[in-house]
Amino acid sequence: MSTRVAVLKGGRSLERQISLRSGAQVEDALERLGYDVVPIDVGTELVPTLQDAAPEVAFIALHGRDGEDGTIQALLEAMDIPYTGSRPAACMCCTDKALAKHLMGQARIPTPHFHAFQEHSIKLWDVASALPAIQEQLGFPLVVKPATQGSALGVKFARSSEELPGAIVGALSYDRKVILERYIAGRDLAVSVIEAPELRALPVVEAVPAEKNFYDFEARYQIGRTRFVCPAELDGALTERAQELALRAYRLLGCHGFARVDLMLAEDDSQMLVIEVNVVPGMTETSLLPQAADAAGIGFDELVELLLASAFTQREQAGVAS
Q1: 262 is a catalytic site residue
Q2: What is the spatial distance between Cα 234 and Cα 231, in angstroms, rounded to a whole number?
Q3: Active site residue 221
Q4: Does domain 113-182 have CATH number 3.40.140.10?
Q5: Where are the domains of the chain?
Q6: Rounded distance, CA 47 to CA 237, Å?
Q7: Per CATH, is 4-84 categorized as 3.40.50.20?
Q8: Contact 220, 227 (CB under 8 A)
Q9: Of the listed 206, 282, 287, 310, which one is catalytic?
Q10: Among the options 35, 215, 221, 250, which is catalytic?
Q11: What is the tens place of the pLDDT at every residue in 217-245?
Q12: Which CATH architecture does the domain made up of 184-321 adopt?
């Protein structure tokens, strides 16, 4: 009898449509591999649906809030259902980009200088009065972004002090915490990390937007808006540096199974910095993890099976830890 796999997708986040696409790709692969697949569009009836389906394992293709912040992972642990990817604590750390950046800073993993503020503190403490000092520290342009959104949602540029308040308001429309980050002009890189079963960094992917100098939501998911180069055209030392930083960030934040680490290489190659770590990377036709796996000689179906296996190795490791 084939293993029953629940593919969790959709949900209520702003990344719903991307999640549905990721889930559909994963479902097709699992069916080709001979698994008994139960697609679940995550909604208010999730618990009874899981109880009725009685899956032996869950493949999480749920992006954004609930899927990446540890919520669904904690529920699955309560229901004693093994699941793909990282455990709740790692998900919480990675989803809160400000927390992740603080932890990376303490561990001396390079990340752009930043400040982060809660919406209530901006109003309560008149944080606007501190903006001139922040601008002097970080310089322009600034990247202003929600602390817990993915897929470049809500990310704004502020090229001057006049643009900064509007960028903050725009980012706060997506989240209650906002990050003001020094902009690093350079090359957008991504390193996917998998445990198959040993930990390894896959070839580096570079995202080269066709029209803009910023890799935004539309450029990321509309075919033709971005050219992806994999392996990225880097010399051996820079490739090794990118993979080393990705592995360090992965270990620091407690990830398991797989994750994607986004980095920025400064224009003059003088700095390589970690931007963020994604615990539920996309599995769409334009997603970076499948592209990196393909460059490493791992086909999509094989990749899905490797990621599924992480659900059981995670349980084994959790058992040892407890």
Answers
A1: yes
A2: 8
A3: yes
A4: no
A5: 4-84, 113-182, 184-321
A6: 48
A7: yes
A8: no
A9: 282
A10: 221
A11: 444 444 456 789 999 999 999 999 999 99
A12: 2-Layer Sandwich (3.30)
